[in-house]
UniProtKB/TrEMBL annotation:
It comes from the Bacteria. PANTHER family: D-ALANYL-D-ALANINE-CARBOXYPEPTIDASE/ENDOPEPTIDASE AMPH (PTHR46825), PENICILLIN-BINDING PROTEIN 4 (PTHR46825:SF11). Residues 66-391 form the Beta-lactamase-related domain. It is found in: Membrane. GO terms for cellular component: membrane. Signal peptide: none annotated. InterPro entries: AmpC-like (IPR050491), Beta-lactam-related (IPR001466), Beta-lactam/transpept-like (IPR012338), TAT_signal (IPR006311). It comes from Pusillimonas noertemannii. Its main location: membrane. This is CubicO group peptidase (Beta-lactamase class C family).
């Protein structure tokens, strides 16, 4: 799942965090290499129009964004037959190596579907109870919040555990680095939960890293070996696996960004995003779902396990202001809004790494499936590779061509409704925080409001002003996006009252524009008591990482990661933190609240995406020098 796009930075967006980061100028269309079907034959006649449309869209992306999109690979399955499988472009631009249907891509968070399958296989064997505490299986697992003991496997698989987010240390690298999952679990021992387990669902990569630990503990073997023996081998997925060491053979798509090719990318969080695969292999996995746990008459997982993965996991959530997004177990959505607009149920999982983005769909009723993967494009270009839009467009046209639907759903209208008398904005103005960019709501004299975001030194206007309209949303005249304010209040499971004011965004945020999604983009923060002298003394300082490998993607492309501490004049009592290791190339800022003079913690509880990847700070003094810890990173104060 991805947040609405921000301007693309100088190095690729880490798509794994948003859901869990060329061709020469001449002859670009001619350089698009034809692929072939799985059996080497011509395209399937029943879907010829769909295939023609999809091929043209991919060619347009390769030609329109040659500095970033070197290769795209796609496969479409109907029943037990791959009706389209084709690779376009170059696996290696530098070596003029064509991409083929055997070329493997890093598919990022699509890997989470296999993590959920692993849990279901262990459940079938009587080794795992989805609703038993994870601490029962991992006696060494602990956190500072005592409620960590309530986290279950179901919470981990449905993004509702309350874990802070993503341990990014040594996550995306140019060489294999072992020990990621062990280090991530160890770092959690010095962190609090950001919300009570089961209270809300917000995208959380570390939940699947903990699944990796659970699988290893129960199966008595490492996670990669378990998946290989229990999923990949039985399904004949011979072009899939985890890169825990440098590959000795095979064809791999290499990172390509900004007109430059990079070495092989390695993804350390295996369960959360580390699988390499081909669309053809993923169609074998899709058949497992369509056949309710069997593959070629061999049972891999129970039908109930498949059903559990595809069941709505949002029904028990306390805070859920985005009911269009229906989390499954391992799936981003088990009622994908874009396909739901056509009256079709779809299980969907988005995935990305530092350099690649993918989308995987299974339509259980129509027995249709699709996988598309390729180099992450520049979202600011009109013609580029957008996995979600491409996948949705191909699937809808396939449904139309086979007669499952009679027409494409209408595109979302962008016309603002008539103005209406606005409500009082007095309580809504102020600063709204999220995981990457504080926003400020300012009331205007005409009853409208303006939005701005913090760019590191000033508030930068985000768009024109927004006026209240007859549909109870606030619109500008130019944008297809509308906003409103929503207050969610109640009492949590510990008997503590809560009252969260969210800035809600509505618009065609994902896919091809056939549906609107409503998401909370920020939570209002109120001023706190002034910072203590200990915190004031740290303002303006920079802290440099001491334990990040120089082979990581951010270290290689942007230099040694660092953190800076400052404050916002408009919001006293908070610490504004930039941690460059979490940046997607553009500065990202979180607002933390002091928990003590040596610790600052998370401040927001935002479902879906904007509350992901939070962290807390902890200072210790060794030999008279302060050391800063963020997750599993350790920092020292920079001289000067």
């Amino acid at each position: 799942m991805q947040a609405p796009s921000a301007p693309i930075p100088t190095w690729p967006v880490s798509s794994s965090r948003r859901q869990f980061l060329g061709y020469g100028a001449a002859g670009m269309l001619a350089a698009v290499l034809p692929g072939c079907d799985a059996d080497g034959g011509p395209p399937h006649a029943a879907y010829s129009q769909t295939i023609e449309w999809g091929s043209q869209e991919i060619a347009r992306a390769l030609a329109g964004d040659p500095d970033n999109v070197a290769a795209v690979s796609i496969a479409l399955l109907k029943n037990d037959t791959v009706v389209w499988q084709q690779a376009f472009g170059h696996a290696s631009v530098q070596d003029n190596l064509a991409a083929t249907i055997q070329t493997r891509f890093n598919i990022g968070s699509v890997s989470k579907v296999l993590a959920a399958l692993a849990a279901m296989i262990l459940r079938d064997r009587g080794l795992l109870d989805l609703d038993a505490p994870v601490a029962h299986y991992l006696p060494g697992f602990t956190m500072l919040s005592p409620e960590y003991a309530q986290i279950t496997t179901r919470h981990l698989l449905s993004h509702s555990s309350g874990l802070p987010g993503t341990s990014m240390r040594n996550a995306f690298t140019f060489e294999p680095i072992p020990g990621y999952a062990v280090n991530a679990e160890a770092a959690l021992a010095d962190q609090h939960l950001k919300h009570l387990p089961g209270m809300l669902a917000v995208y959380c990569n570390d939940g699947f890293t903990m699944i990796e630990r659970v699988v290893a503990a129960l199966a008595k073997q490492d996670y990669a070996s378990f998946i290989q023996a229990n999923v990949l081998d039985p399904l004949g997925m011979t072009d899939s696996g985890f890169l825990t060491k440098r590959p000795a053979g095979g064809s791999f798509a290499l990172p390509y960004s900004g007109g430059r090719q990079y070495p092989q990318e390695f993804v350390s969080p295996l369960a959360t995003g580390g699988l390499t695969s081909t669309p053809g292999d993923m169609m074998k996995l899709a058949r497992l779902f369509l056949d309710r746990g069997t593959y070629q008459s061999r049972s891999i997982v129970s039908a109930d396990g498949i059903a559990q993965m595809g069941a709505d996991q949002t029904t028990g959530l306390i805070i859920n202001p985005s009911p269009q997004w229906v989390w499954g177990l391992g799936w981003d959505s088990v009622r994908h809004p874009g396909l739901a607009a056509a009256g079709v149920q779809a299980w969907q999982k988005n995935g990305g790494t530092a350099f690649f983005s993918s989308d995987f769909y299974v339509l259980p009723d129509q027995r249709l499936a699709l996988m598309v993967t390729g180099n992450t494009g520049d979202a600011q270009r009109a013609d580029t590779y957008r996995a979600g839009a491409l996948a949705e467009g191909v699937l809808l046209r396939a449904l139309l061509e086979e007669g499952s639907i009679h027409t494409l759903p209408p595109l979302v209208a962008h016309t603002a409704p008539p103005r209406a008398t606005p409500p009082d904005l007095a309580d809504a103005v102020g600063v709204y925080a999220n995981y990457n960019q504080p926003m400020r709501v300012t009331a205007n004299q005409d009853g409208s409001f303006s939005l701005s975001s913090w760019n590191g030194s000033a508030w930068q206007p985000m768009n024109a002003s927004y006026s209240y309209r007859s549909d109870d949303w606030w619109w500008s005249n130019e944008a297809p996006i509308s906003y409103r304010f929503e207050v969610v209040s109640g009492t949590d499971a510990n008997g503590q009252p809560y009252r969260n004011r969210y800035l809600m965004l509505r618009g065609p945020l994902f896919g091809a524009g056939y549906n609107e999604t409503t998401l909370p983009m920020g939570q209002q923060l109120l001023p706190l008591a002034p910072l203590s002298a200990a915190w004031q003394a740290r303002m303006g300082k920079t802290w440099t990482v001491t334990n990040e490998s120089p082979a990581t993607v951010p270290s290689t492309l942007n230099g040694t990661p660092y953190a800076t501490l400052s404050s916002l004049p408009e919001l006293p009592g908070y610490i504004l933190v930039r941690n460059s290791s979490y940046d997607d190339g553009l500065p990202e800022y979180q607002l933390l609240a002091p928990l003590a003079d040596d610790r600052a913690g998370m401040t927001v509880k935002i479902p879906a995406n904007a509350g992901r990847d939070l962290y807390e700070l902890h200072f210790t003094t060794v030999g008279g020098n302060e050391t800063l810890t963020i997750g599993s990173w350790v920092y020292e104060a920079s001289v000067g």
